[in-house]
Write a structure and sequence with these properties.
mainly alpha; single chain; 10 helices; UraD-like; about 0% strand
Length: about 170
């Protein structure tokens, strides 16, 4: 879709398109107030600004719109509307050995138990081993630091997905 097409969508369709990029209702509403955008750069600046204005509860809400890293079954079933994007983002998981996938699953569970939300990382261009290393490192963070890191990662994902939406 082009930016012109996004600008011309009816509000419900535009909200649905934005939700594919970031599941935070607060972020979506801030973005909706900015339409129409004159160019893609203005849209991306507004998206970054809106996300930076969001708080931890908005982050946790956005995180629920992502599959766990390496959970391809969940990606196909629950996240069908963004599954193609998420699959591409998690391409580094493809072909990973079973022991690495098991370590990711165990790490995901430990992360969720500690922080109360899924491990969120901008997986584009990262291997399964790199994602596991990041997960293991971030498990050592305190909750305040971790939510900030997770929100930064969500911001990167949002930007990439907006760019995909407009191609």
């Amino acid at each position: 879709m082009t930016l012109s097409e996004l600008n011309m969508l009816d509000p419900a369709e535009r909200r649905a398109a934005l939700e594919k990029c970031n599941g935070s209702r607060t972020w979506i509403e801030m973005m909706m107030r900015g339409f129409p955008f004159v160019d893609t750069a203005a849209l991306l600046v507004a998206a970054d600004h809106a996300w930076q204005s969001c708080g931890p509860s908005d982050g946790r809400e956005a995180f629920t719109h992502h599959p766990r890293i390496g959970d391809m079954d969940s990606l196909r079933k629950k996240f069908a509307n963004t599954g193609q994007w998420a699959a591409g983002e998690q391409a580094g998981i493809d072909g990973a050995p079973d022991d690495l996938l098991a370590a990711l699953a165990a790490g995901n569970q430990a992360y969720e138990e500690k922080f109360g939300y899924i491990f969120i990382v901008c997986a584009t261009g990262r291997s399964a081993a790199e994602m596991l290393t990041s997960l293991q490192q971030r498990l050592g963070n305190d909750p305040e630091k971790e939510i900030q890191i997770a929100m930064t990662e969500q911001g990167r994902i949002t930007r990439l997905r907006l760019e995909k939406l407009l191609t």
